[in-house]
Amino acid sequence: MNPSQELVEQGISTRNLQRVSCTTVLTLAYQSLGVVYGDLSISPLYVYKTTFSGKLSLHENDEQIFGVLSFIFWTFTLIALFKYVFIVMLADDNGEGGTFALYSLLCRHARLSFLPNQEITDEKLSEYVTEGNRDTWQSSALKSFFNKHPRFREALLIFVLFGTCMAIGDGVLTPSISVFSAVSGVKLKFTELHDNYIVIISCILLVGLFSLQHYGTHRVSFMFAPIVTAWLLCISGIGIYNIIQWNQSVLHSLSPVYMLKFLKNTGIEGWVSLAGVVLSITGVEAMFANLGHFSSLPIKIAFTCLVYPSLVLSYMGEAAFLSKHHEDIQRSFYKSIPEAVFWPVFVLASFASVVGSQAVISATFSLISQCSALKCFPRVKIVHTSSKIYGQIYIPEVNWMLMCLCLAVTIGLRDTNMMGHAYGLAVTSVMFVTTCLMALVIIIVWKGRVINALAFLLFFGSIELIYISASVTKIPEGGWIPILLSLVFMGVMYIWNYGTMMKHQFDVENKVSINRIVCLGPSLGMVRVPGIGLVYTNLVTGVPAVFGHFVTNLPAFHKVLIFVCVKSVQVPHVSGKERLIISRVGPKECGMFRCIVRYGYKDLQQENCNFENRLVSGIVQFVETEECPDTEAFYAPDQTTLVEANDEENMMQVSCNLQDESLQILEAKESGVTYILGHSHAKAKKSASFFKKVAIDIVYNFLRKNCRDPDVVLNVPPTSLLEVGMVYYV
To answer: Membrane-spanning regions, if any (predicted)?
Structure first.
């Protein structure tokens, strides 16, 4: 594989973009069409239909059609092109984009994170970059405000979770509306076909789409880019044909004057219809969210050179056709297709709708994986579907849940207009969350002036609030769906995060002193057995209460004891060289160590079977270099050692010239490794409020019992697992 192909498979980051050839950038731009723009490119299927539903259908004349086109053009230009391409995509987090990337930037620069176990040593990570201009008085004041008022930090987290839940709602609504809209076109040729058959065909396609997810997108991704490219060229060509054939004066409607005329003539009905116009920018958030796979330059090139002009031409052509065929407003897209190419375009539309759905489903998997890493979602099984392309994952539980919800929406609504109303509210909500976070980024991260942040917030936020207000009026007509979904997901996320934080607080308050365990040893008749014991804990300091509970009931533990803390940090990725931090616990003769395993919020928190070897190798290196003043290893301020534990050959290089303690560690490794995990059960205190009892005793414990166990997530061998039961009160 040549370097160009390797970069195409792995994506390129902003740091090494300057070293990438022009050919590679163009290749990435081409491939991004299939992954990033599938959702955005299929919006012409339903925008005009949804916009002219309801009472606006009484105003079907040329001026109203041109007014809608003017709204579509300027919304698409201002939000998609100016906001996302020119501004938002500059706020990447080490090449990663999306809501969590913005929140991560804010957490690092203003210390807003609620993640437990954050340490000073985490700030030495290569991706933990906070350098730049010095704090301005505005940024300092804003940081101080958040630090003095923890409730506002919590409110910001809830706000981010709200945007995330609305984005997950996109994962439910996009496949439903995309597939249903594409399949509905067949009724133009088979007018006697009952709606039930359209629903059945759509459901079959949806079941097939979700059933193929476990294979991973990389197996069929080579088809995505050609399909979307062909689709964009096709609709742009049809748009040009319709402009020339039906009404060339449609070009005049690009003037913003037509928007004012539209609102003046249609009044309240025109304002309400904007809930349909907003569907023209569905998928723009994906441009930002997919930065990690392609970087900003290829995505910008693809959008400005092909996606933007193709979609504008398509909307203009459809408006030109409608200006001469008012009666076809509810099936405008397929009616505007020339008869000679109808069936090829119909087939291409069906494929494009599947591609658009696939992109959103994959993004939902990635989003929930990030939420789980940040302790905001129950543990789920995460399968890495590609050994070459990092970040392509599959989550079985989420996949089947999305499928059931998509089928329920398709069967329950059976109408593109109602699906569009639900879809529009979800899309505008996510964009508004991004706008608010960007305003904070401008002040805190970019050290910009407050006036610039306010200008950004007021200009783009006001546009989005107009669309949100229009979408809110559609709540009875389908808009309640994303609200209900987001409330359910937010409830799950918040309660899981709350329960996890309470458990961590209990562990911190009840951690055991190592000196106490050493002193109790003789009175308990404590013995040391051969082997290595890995005690998994949430703590980065001290001895967990579960271990104290273990030794008081079974006064024996292994000759070598390692407290392993797996934690997330506020960076997208942690390299293998920086993943492990090893330190000693207690006196040297106790043979106890601590290993902190660090992951970024986009890393998969899974270790392969080599973890034992890497860990033992790292501890031996630590023992050998612990007292060497000239060692090249990194020493943290708390006397921890950062270990490059990414090489299997290390185990072969420690067979000679070792200290006695190192030899004992290797001998213990040969005797076997036991994984000791706490099996905790949470209970609310008797004095707790009714809501806290419901949240902890019912909801949290239900989620804990039905999510993946920690040993499954950590790939612990079942034959080496030892669980210690314990009840804690919060």
So the answer is: 65-86, 155-177, 197-215, 222-244, 270-289, 301-321, 341-368, 389-411, 423-446, 453-473, 479-496
